């Protein structure tokens, strides 16, 4: 089973048919993804289930429905065990960005965290779950596939938000502050923190 977010509402890819309650089900092979996005955005439905009999092909078939944007990002801890957050578009988020040619996804994640926050000395400690969300750019919907990594750093320098990317704040947040920030964040980020 996979979850792809449209805003904070999930599209759930599944091979199981369930009785519809506060969600609607469609067959993945014949679905009109534009209609699904519109339905989620304009109704009080809680979710959409896209069903395919072969659970091993769910994600592969779904990713063919829209252009994909591959990104890498980090959940970064400092020596005080605080998590690095950015503030962009009036929401708290974790630093991430688009992969460039000829770089590994790990290199992308480290580069993007450095660029968006000014934090250096990053070391990847382990991979985290990959997230999926649908966004609209220049009138077209796309699927962002973000590969996340847990990172550590001993960096104690100044944080510098990448303003040309719309980032207005960068902060280290402790456990309590992180939980508060997640109330004004994205569903994908709540899965990671």
Number of strands: 12
Determine the mean pLDDT.
96
> Looking at this structure, what is the CATH superfamily of the largest domain?
Nucleoside Triphosphate Pyrophosphohydrolase
Give the percentage of residues in beta strands. 35-45%
Could you name the ranges where pLDDT drops below 50 across 5 or more consecutive residues? none
What percent of residues adopt helix (DSSP H or I)?
Answer: 10-25%
The tally of helices reads 5
What pattern of helices and strands is seen along the backbone?
A: EEEHEHEEEEHEEEEHH
Give the N-terminus to C-terminus distance in angstroms.
20 Å
Q: In angstroms, what is the radius of gyration?
A: 18 Å
Structural class: alpha/beta
Report on the biggest sheet.
9 strands, mixed
Q: How would the global form be characterised?
A: elongated
Named CATH topology of the largest domain: Nucleoside Triphosphate Pyrophosphohydrolase
CATH architecture of the largest domain: Alpha-Beta Complex
Number of domains: 2
State the name of the first-level CATH class of the largest domain: Alpha Beta
Family: Belongs to the Nudix hydrolase family.
GO molecular function, one term: hydrolase activity
Keywords: Hydrolase
Protein name: ADP-ribose pyrophosphatase YjhB (NUDIX family)
Architecture blueprint of SSEs:
Layout (H helix, E strand, L loop, with lengths): L1 E5 L2 E6 L8 E5 L5 H10 L4 E5 L6 H6 L4 E10 L5 E6 L2 E3 L2 E3 L6 H13 L5 E5 L3 E7 L2 E13 L14 E7 L1 H8 L4 H6 L1
Parallel strand pairs: 1-10, 2-4, 3-4, 5-11
Antiparallel strand pairs: 1-2, 5-8, 6-7, 6-12, 9-11, 10-11
